[in-house]
């Protein structure tokens, strides 16, 4: 049985991307997921963290978060900036910033 990894819906599924912009070829297989029509439409071309919301980041389904972190790792490694991450004011990694950084580097390839 195939379900939407975002909401566990079983109907009106389509193939979509976690990161809506170009990612390194080695990250492509991690970027493809099934999503229901409603999730796919509301996410649009937003980054996962932008769409889900930083205040609800702890509720992102584990499977999606694992794929997203893998994509970010591969993208930043490919760009040669893996060690240039930025910590937020509370000492945590700022995933929204890292996601934007990944999109910026990958868009220029």
What's the structural blueprint in terms of helices and strands?
Blueprint: E1 13-17, H1 28-31, E2 32-36, H2 37-43, H3 48-52, H4 62-79, H5 95-107
Antiparallel strand pairs: 1-2
Task: Give an account of the 3D structure.
The chain contains 5 helices and 2 strands. With 109 residues, the protein is mostly helical. The protein has one domain. It has a two-stranded antiparallel ribbon with strand order 1-2. The chain starts with 12 loop residues before the first strand and ends with a helix. 25% of the residues are buried.
Strand residue content: 5-15%
**Radius of gyration, in angstroms, nearest whole number:** 14 Å
Q: Which structural class matches the secondary elements?
A: mainly alpha
The geometry reads as globular
Largest sheet: 2 strands, antiparallel
């Amino acid at each position: 049985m195939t379900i939407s990894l975002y909401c566990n819906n079983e109907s009106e599924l389509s193939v979509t991307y976690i990161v809506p912009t170009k990612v390194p070829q080695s990250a492509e297989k991690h970027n493809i997921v099934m999503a229901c029509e409603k999730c796919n439409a509301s996410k649009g071309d937003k980054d996962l963290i932008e769409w889900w919301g930083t205040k609800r980041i702890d509720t992102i389904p584990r499977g999606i978060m694992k794929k997203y972190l893998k994509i970010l790792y591969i993208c930043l490694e490919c760009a040669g900036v893996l060690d240039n991450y930025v910590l937020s004011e509370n000492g945590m990694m700022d995933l929204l910033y890292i996601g934007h950084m990944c999109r910026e580097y990958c868009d220029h390839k």
